[in-house]
Amino acid sequence: MVGERIDCRAGRPGGLGAGVQLLLAREVLARRLDESVDESVDDLLGAALPWLIALVVLTVLLSLVKVVQNTLSQVLAEAVSVRATEAILDVAASVEPEESSLRFSCQSRDRRSF
Fold first, then answer.
1. Considering only CA atoms, which of 63, 84, 74, 81 is closest in space to residue 14?
2. Tens digits of per-residue pLDDT, 15-60?
3. How far is CA 12 from the centre of its chain?
4. CA 68 – CA 76 distance, rounded (Å)
5. The pTM is what?
6. 14 CB contacts (<8 Å, ≥6 apart)?
């Protein structure tokens, strides 16, 4: 059946991405703090802007990956639930009920109705 195999490597993009985010944030701060106070705002922004853009793009991509992972997780949970229910119903349908257990359940139901 399709989707029965789970890939354990699915969580790697989040951890790797968080590490790259930290490195990019450090680089943005380093560029900002390394610039002298005498330089204009345009020069200060120009030095850190490429790193800041990279940080924003990576953050958006990681958010999209997280949404996809959550959706796939929900689909997988639903598929597992359906398969478990089917297995339980298959077992229940294959078992022949005993007459004494049916009689007992009917007697119990009659006692509860009073």
1. 63
2. 788 888 888 888 888 877 765 555 666 666 677 788 888 889 999 9
3. 12
4. 12
5. 0.56
6. 62, 65, 66, 69
